[in-house]
Amino acid sequence: MNNPGFFDGQSFSRQDYTISPLPRGEYDGCAFLNCNFSNSDLTDIRFLDCTFDGCDLSLSRLTGSVMTGIKFLNCKMLGLLFETCNEHGFSAGFDNCILDHSSFSRLKLRKTIFRNVTCHEADFTDCDLSGSVFDRCDLGCAVFENSVLEKTDFRTAINFSIDPEKNKIRHAMFSLTGLPGLLEKYHLEIDHG
């Protein structure tokens, strides 16, 4: 018997969910390709092991949404409040995405991969990012406060400002060129040689 609210392994391409909303339900192993979710209401929808590629999810409402094992590729995701998602089992990876003005506050994002991502003014307050990787990410004006950054890899990240006194950074990895981002509050002039 088919369950109208259950979608398994389906592919959705070039759909405009601003015109016709995504049906509520559970999406398991589905792929969303070049879809427009901008300003959509994704409240309480379950996404399990899904891929979003080339999608615009900017300003979508995620309240109570389940996102487990999600891959975001080449997506525009401005102003998303990931902290409103169901926090249990939240796991996602981000590759070549724009996450400007998004908030991950209070989420457990252990071992999350951010690759080629811009996170301008993103909020990581009270976030557990231990073991995560920011590979070639632009973290301009991103907020890290009371964050767990232990064993987090910032070696190729740029434009970050992290106060070691307000975050747990034990065994975090930084490149020599990234050290000014750790010392910014001291207003030091650092000669790069």
Report a brief summary of the structure:
The chain is an all-beta fold and 193 residues long.
CATH superfamily of the largest domain: E3 ubiquitin-protein ligase SopA
Q: In CATH terms, what is the fold-level topology of the largest domain?
A: Pectate Lyase C-like
Q: Indicate the structural class.
A: mainly beta
Which second-level CATH architecture of the largest domain applies? 3 Solenoid
Overall number of structural domains: 2
Please provide the ordered H/E string of secondary-structure elements: EEEEEEEEEEEH
How many DSSP E strands? 11
| Range of helix content | under 10%
Low-pLDDT residue intervals, each spanning 5 or more residues: none
Strand order in the largest sheet: 2-4-6-8-9-10-11
Name the shape in a single word: elongated
* Measured distance between first and last alpha carbons: 69 Å
- Look at the structure and give the CATH class of the largest domain: Mainly Beta
Main sheet specs? 7 strands, parallel
Output the number of helix runs.
1
Q: Strand share of the residues?
A: 15-25%
Rounded to an integer in angstroms, the radius of gyration calculated over CA atoms is 18 Å
What does this structure look like?
The chain has 193 residues and is mostly beta strands. It folds into two domains: 1-17 and 24-38 and 45-96, Pectate Lyase C-like (3 Solenoid), CATH 2.160.20; 104-187, Pectate Lyase C-like (3 Solenoid), CATH 2.160.20.80. It is built from one helix and eleven strands. A seven-stranded parallel sheet has the order 2-4-6-8-9-10-11, with no helix packed on it.
